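Aim 2 progress update. The chain analyzed this quarter is reproduced below.
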Amino acid sequence: ASLDPEYAKLAGQSAAAQQTAAIPTPEAVARRGGELLLHAFDHSNPNNLGIAWHLLQSLGRVMLGFVLALVVAVPLGFTLGLFPSVYQTLNPFIQVLRPISPLAWMPLALYTFRDSSVSAIFIIFICAVWPMLINTAVGAANVRQEWVNVSRVFGLNKFQHVTRIMFPASVPMIMTGMRISVGIAWFVIVAAEMVGAQSGIGYFIWNEWNNLQIASMIVAIVLIGLIGLGLDSGLAWAARKLSFRE
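Predicted structure tokens:
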């Protein structure tokens, strides 16, 4: 009987925690979204930055890893497409490394770089490089034969053949690979930042989960989707501008 008050207290705390952790209503999410956006650029407390700073941190890591992957994947993929013997040599290594989950590299990256931000950039590089590499190789290897014949008829040298025929014809496939890569990079960064980062939208979501702020998590998820849509739409627009029309 003496334990009944203590038991009732614990039961009340458990019920309160369950009520706090319940899925919030759309009105509560909208209200919390307004609060987060109102203080989006707040940096008065380094331990409680506004959500905009976390999004910018994540975007910066994604863009840096994406650009590094672009610098490696496009020239190498173009080489693989132009030289089938090189492709046959490297293809087994590509097919072994490509299916490995990017997050499987995270512990090794943390051990090697000793920095969560650098490790996240490395993970982005790993996940973004393969779609661009493969799409670039396929695009360069499947240029229409009549265009190659026209290049020969006009007597273009190797450099002109690559820059005027092969590369422009490969641009649609390269841009497709870039769109796939940036989409993968954007959703991988969330998981990578949950592991050990001290900033970024992944860290924000994990921190809000620890505080049982479900409405904040939903707002962050919506923002992730909107930014992902913006990144894909921007690359789709660039693809339309850069691709030639017959």
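Residues 158-196 form the longest helix (39 residues). Residues 14-20 have pLDDT under 50 and may be disordered. These observations will guide the mutagenesis experiments scheduled for the next reporting period.
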